[in-house]
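Bumping my old thread because nobody answered last time. Still need a sequence for this structure:
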């Protein structure tokens, strides 16, 4: 096994710590709204308006289809999303926000604003753009590596 550098050891720990801090703060902010941080991400992914298949949604939020399906069942019971048969693929379902889902998402967006303000407050807009680009590069690279296995 090759000798690792301090930086190689710190990056996974730093990524995990940042994610967990964001997740904990978001869970606390959304608790009174009856929605989890993960459900918020799913609602946000649907906010662009077009219906997505469950597979497209899982890909968009970097989750596995069974986890997405479980979240969709709960969100459908809450009448925040609606699932329908896909127009051309009888095996697939499409998912879209309901009017109630759009209203809930607006409330959640407001409830999470202070978290986003804190997050962006510790970096310049250029640093935020760089961070987003780098995180996307990491995701893309690791997803390519995974598909080669």
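Sorry it took so long. Here it is:
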């Amino acid at each position: 096994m090759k000798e690792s550098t301090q930086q190689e050891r710190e990056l996974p720990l730093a990524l995990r710590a940042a994610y967990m801090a964001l997740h904990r703060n978001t869970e606390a902010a959304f608790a009174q709204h009856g929605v989890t941080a993960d459900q918020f991400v799913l609602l946000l992914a649907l906010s662009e308006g077009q219906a997505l298949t469950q597979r497209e949604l899982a890909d968009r939020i970097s989750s596995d289809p069974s986890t997405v399906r479980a979240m969709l069942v709960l969100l459908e019971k809450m009448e925040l999303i609606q699932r329908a048969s896909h127009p051309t693929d009888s095996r697939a379902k499409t998912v879209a926000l309901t009017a109630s889902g759009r209203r809930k998402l607006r409330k959640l967006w407001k409830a999470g604003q202070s978290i986003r303000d804190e997050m962006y407050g510790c970096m310049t807009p250029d640093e935020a753009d760089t961070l987003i680009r780098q995180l996307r590069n990491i995701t893309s690279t690791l997803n390519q590596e995974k598909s080669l296995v």
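The CA atoms of residues 125 and 131 lie 10 Å apart. Let me know if any region looks off to you.
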